[in-house]
Amino acid sequence: MSKDELRLLDFWASPFCMRVKIALSEKGVAYASQEEDLFGGKSDVLLKSNPIYEKVPVLLDNGKPIVESNNIVYYIDDKYPSPNPLLPSCAYGRPVHIFEGGMGIWKSKGEELEIAKKDFIEILKKLEGAMGDKDYFGGDNFGYVDVIAIAMTSWFHAYEVFGDFKVEQECPKFGCWMKRCLKRESVSSVLPDPEKIYQCVIMLRKMHGIE
Amino acid sequence: MSKDELRLLDFWASPFCMRVKIALSEKGVAYASQEEDLFGGKSDVLLKSNPIYEKVPVLLDNGKPIVESNNIVYYIDDKYPSPNPLLPSCAYGRPVHIFEGGMGIWKSKGEELEIAKKDFIEILKKLEGAMGDKDYFGGDNFGYVDVIAIAMTSWFHAYEVFGDFKVEQECPKFGCWMKRCLKRESVSSVLPDPEKIYQCVIMLRKMHGIE
């Protein structure tokens, strides 16, 4: 990896910057550190990358700015799942990939769609594996990763129609987890009607010139 | 809580917005939702709150914008630890409060400092409790919460000098965890010399007109 790919807007005494550097070091990832003069003048790239807070740390991934230390650590762990996964319950196949995987389905057709479908099911199977024999990704209780992942399932009906498959049949354990989560008022009251999302996806496909 | 305090820049079909709504619902927190017209025109408040990505969700907490769904869920869980903690290993006394607690120490003197010191030790004791009998906040392995928390300890020497106390004596279990983490190359190579931080804090105290 070239050092230019990852650039950290840094300040040596900031524990928030240290969080990011520890996470990068855990992953063995090379990066360039750019020390900011917080008491003198901040760099243009800092003012441009984090215009609201003008705060370090900012991680630039090929120029794309990621802000706020907790968020950057999460981003690093998601981009480099190994070695040393930091959020172990979803070390392999993070929920974020569900949406990307699903996009592969609704944005394609024919042979391409078949490949996207296989990839998508593969992502869910990895998540199933990460859950092990627990009820939730968070263990015995509905937790952070469950919140992140269950929201993604609101689009599953649309994926299933376009991909001609059933998540429950392909990944029964994942299906059970979905049902378990949907029993929670917080989830069932928030997720919209799957049919409405399906209609929305039909519109998106038209906008993207598919079919 | 007044509905005006929390405002969500929302889009009904976005699973990223659903994450935030599920988390708010888990906490039983009231909020106002502002539906954005992503295909027509985005609101000024969205463009202003998230100028880089111009993306929903944005959570406005009394006007202060929090961006990116993972980050917002973390923020909500930190601000409202109960009911239903989402990141259970640090449900009570989140690492973020270490820095705020420490600031109470170095920004004060006299009686005020004594109160700040007690508060700070209380925060560490709660964190100890959250760790239970595990080696790390992440369980058997160094994980996300460990990264977030250990970075904060780089300022402890300064707190100890100004507060005239020793973390290791007050919170021996927390002290053991610190030593365990410091054995990791990723941590020891990143944390700066405590004496340098102490000098930095002396300068900060002068800048703030303390002593």
Automatic annotation (TrEMBL), chains A, B:
<feature type="domain" description="GST N-terminal">
    <location>
        <begin position="4"/>
        <end position="84"/>
    </location>
</feature>
<dbReference type="Pfam" id="PF13410">
    <property type="entry name" value="GST_C_2"/>
</dbReference>
<dbReference type="InterPro" id="IPR045073">
    <property type="entry name" value="Omega/Tau-like"/>
</dbReference>
<dbReference type="InterPro" id="IPR036282">
    <property type="entry name" value="Glutathione-S-Trfase_C_sf"/>
</dbReference>
<dbReference type="GO" id="GO:0006749">
    <property type="term" value="P:glutathione metabolic process"/>
</dbReference>
<feature type="domain" description="Rhodanese">
    <location>
        <begin position="91"/>
        <end position="115"/>
    </location>
</feature>
<feature type="domain" description="GST C-terminal">
    <location>
        <begin position="62"/>
        <end position="210"/>
    </location>
</feature>
<dbReference type="InterPro" id="IPR045074">
    <property type="entry name" value="GST_C_Tau"/>
</dbReference>
<dbReference type="InterPro" id="IPR010987">
    <property type="entry name" value="Glutathione-S-Trfase_C-like"/>
</dbReference>
<dbReference type="InterPro" id="IPR036249">
    <property type="entry name" value="Thioredoxin-like_sf"/>
</dbReference>
<dbReference type="GO" id="GO:0005829">
    <property type="term" value="C:cytosol"/>
</dbReference>
<dbReference type="InterPro" id="IPR004045">
    <property type="entry name" value="Glutathione_S-Trfase_N"/>
</dbReference>
<dbReference type="InterPro" id="IPR040079">
    <property type="entry name" value="Glutathione_S-Trfase"/>
</dbReference>
<dbReference type="Pfam" id="PF13417">
    <property type="entry name" value="GST_N_3"/>
</dbReference>
<comment type="function">
    <text>Is involved in the conjugation of reduced glutathione to a wide number of exogenous and endogenous hydrophobic electrophiles.</text>
</comment>
<keyword id="KW-0963">Cytoplasm</keyword>
<dbReference type="GO" id="GO:0004364">
    <property type="term" value="F:glutathione transferase activity"/>
</dbReference>
<protein>
    <recommendedName>
        <fullName>Glutathione S-transferase</fullName>
        <ecNumber>2.5.1.18</ecNumber>
    </recommendedName>
</protein>
<comment type="similarity">
    <text>Belongs to the GST superfamily.</text>
</comment>
<dbReference type="InterPro" id="IPR001763">
    <property type="entry name" value="Rhodanese-like_dom"/>
</dbReference>
<keyword id="KW-0808">Transferase</keyword>
